[in-house]
Amino acid sequence: MMNHYLKTAFRNIRKYRQQNIISIIGLAIGFVCFALSVLWIRYELSYDNFHEGADRIYRVRITNERWEGNLCLVTPYLLSSYLKSTWPEVEDACALNSWDIRLKVDNKLYDTFALYIDSSFYDIFSVKVIEGNLDFIKSKAQGIAITPELATRMFGNENAIGKTIQYSNQQLTVDALVEGWGMHSNMSFQCIMPLRIYAADKWDTFSYRTYICLKEGAEREKFEQKVRAFGEREELDGFDFSKIVFTPIKELHYTFPDEDSRVKFSHVFLFALSGLLVILCSLFNYLTLFINCLKIRSKEFALRKTNGATNQNLFLMLMCEIGIMLILAVTVGLILIEWSLPMFKHLSGVDNSTGHIYMETLSYGVLIVAATILLVLLPVMMYFRRQTLYSSLKDTKDGIHKNLFRKVSIVLQLFISIGFIYCTMVIYKQVDSILHADTGIDQQNTATVGCYPLETKTLYQELKQLPEVQEVIMARAGFLPANSTSHNKLKPEEKSQKEDPSTECEIKYATADFISFYRIPFVEGRTFNESSKEAKEVIINEKARNAFGWTSGIGHRIVDDRGVACVVVGVVKDFVSTSPTEPTKPIVFLPEPGEQICLIRYLPGKKEACCQAVEERILQKFPDTDFSIYTVEDTLEEYVKSESALFSMLGFVSVVCIVVSLFGIYSLAMLICERRRKEIAIRKVLGASTGSILLLFYREFFVLLGIASALAFSISYVIMKPWREQYIRQVAIGPEVYAGIFLSMLACIVLTIDWLVWRTAHINPAEVIKSE
């Protein structure tokens, strides 16, 4: 009996192979997207859970509107010991630092990530020592601990203990081999060095990362309120405890990470939702085909009942078909996972073993299969409950509810497809606008070059000689990447009383060459006259001028909280220079000396060649220095890397949904043509033209497309509106986008069903009626 059911199932799958293949592929892709994204989410939620007492460890930061995300990532060194000594809820506390560094061994450079710690670090965290010791941490000796992976990169199979590593102008001795924490940590490291404190007695020095471990039973929320209440009563040397924030270490990576992930956590959720929608689209496509096949096969079922088959027998036969489809879909999904695994690991940073990934994704596949079977069972049970032997033989109709599910299914598939297309188009236009739109200043083909401890003037002379460099100046810092930024509270001299409000301005140290280099346009006034012996000159932007309440800024004077006055000699237009999500701030340019880097403008299209030439020149002339090269182009791409990844993922999913939807429409049109062959033949006999018959089919699909478009555009607009509002430069989504998407889908539908209906309409009516 089972062999017969299996043979019948394979025959029916083969009979409608085109539609079934599309359903299998769609279900497989949806399964892959959903399974990998859920695995990704679980991985993000489990960062740093390997630490002992991880549920009680918190990162300490303060809210500050000057920082992107309104959260200051660094704190004073004194904060950790003060928290531990003042509040009994704190069991342990430590301060540390971590950043990218460049080490040198035998004139070869190795980029790595260093963790700077002191002895208080061991009160909260533990590091497994494989060989050697960490005594240099307490003694502050010129030692370093490295992981076996870094040791292999540097020294091959040789024993690394006792080897010498050059860092900047220091000679470090490898005192220990330690086991790293891998990439599944907010504090991943490849080497450990002693934390050196240069301003430990100052509360206004924000340079360290503070962690605390609360005692068991202490509640984070109540403790945070207690500390903030203390800050509302008093400040400690200017440090405001009322703005303090304690973030659980296990939540750092997906809430406020120190460095942006390749893909934002919210975008991973969108990817998971996309996978579910693809599954839904493919499933409804298959269900539509399945239900239509039930209607077509009603006489077959009636004959089987006549020969003694029960509803249970027929139900089991259909379950065999569904089971084979789902097994094929999961198999294809596993093949796709194998193909996409390297790309997935690169995007997500998941470092789990391949076997673990397969086991976890397979478990999600089982859940999807179970949910699909339950969903398919409903129409099957309803069919056998309503369909009697008499109705099967007579092929009775369902009245006004005829084909309702088919129409709803098409609307749903088109709705999902159009929604994906719209969201993908919005993301593409927004990302393209950030990368290529006019920002108000000329940052194209520019880069920042730093070389420590080399004098900037020496670096400037070398860079001037490179043929790839079109222009070069010395500066304290550029705009991108955004660093070396300070703020100050300023007010107009005519409103300099203590009770008068001040405006917090971003201070940018610049020269006339700096203003000229970026082609910053002036609204009024002039650039710096560096030979002037008059009062200290400043240049402000329009935002600052408006904040000071001036209609014209030239000649006005501004003062800081110490009473130092400056005269405004120029006002520049507002411009966007940093993060696309950061609003334009009041900016004051000060002609202060202290050049630390060089800004270069390279020839168009010569970015790679210029960066290579700069690196080769520095390595050749100054081999014992550390250097960095940051291009504006790469920095901007770094800002939108998550959006770019989301665009790629949604673009792929959109194509899948469109193909599934069109094949669903094609299969439905084929089934409709099959069921209405006699009606079409009679219409032809009565004089109907091919065009009128085509219009008969088009009218139904066009109405369904209109309904799906209206729903998709409305809901997608609501979904994407808050996403777009986070950007200062919001791209305009005009009517041409909606019209283009609608007309494109309309053309796809016409091309999908045109040939099929045309072929059916040209069959000889006599042959059709005779066969019927």
Report a brief summary of the structure:
The protein is built from 23 helices and 22 strands. The chain is α+β, with helices and mostly antiparallel strands and 772 residues long. The longest helix is centred in the middle third of the chain and has 38 residues, at 311-348.
Question: How does this model look, in words?
Answer:
By secondary structure, this protein is α+β, with helices and mostly antiparallel strands. The protein has 23 helices and 22 strands. The chain has a six-stranded mixed barrel with strand order 3-4-9-6-8-7. The protein has a six-stranded mixed barrel with strand order 14-15-20-17-19-18. The longest helix has 38 residues, at 311-348.
Descriptors:
772 residues; 22 strands; 18% strand; 23 helices; 6-stranded mixed barrel; 51% helix; alpha+beta; single chain; globular
Furnish the topology, listing elements before pairings:
Layout: H1 2-15, H2 17-45, E1 57-63, E2 71-72, H3 78-86, E3 90-105, E4 108-117, E5 129-132, H4 136-139, E6 143-146, H5 148-155, E7 164-167, E8 170-178, E9 191-194, E10 209-214, H6 220-233, E11 244-248, H7 252-255, H8 265-296, H9 298-306, H10 311-348, H11 354-386, H12 389-394, H13 404-436, E12 446-452, H14 456-464, E13 469-475, E14 486-492, E15 503-509, H15 512-517, E16 522-525, E17 537-541, H16 542-547, E18 557-560, E19 565-572, E20 587-590, E21 597-602, H17 607-621, E22 626-631, H18 632-639, H19 641-675, H20 677-685, H21 690-725, H22 735-761, H23 765-771
Parallel strand pairs: 4-9, 6-8, 15-20, 17-19
Antiparallel strand pairs: 1-2, 1-10, 1-11, 3-4, 3-7, 3-10, 5-8, 6-9, 7-8, 12-21, 12-22, 13-21, 14-15, 14-18, 16-19, 17-20, 18-19
Helix pairs in contact: 1-10, 2-8, 2-10, 2-11, 2-19, 8-11, 8-13, 8-19, 10-11, 13-19, 13-21, 13-22, 19-22, 20-23, 21-22
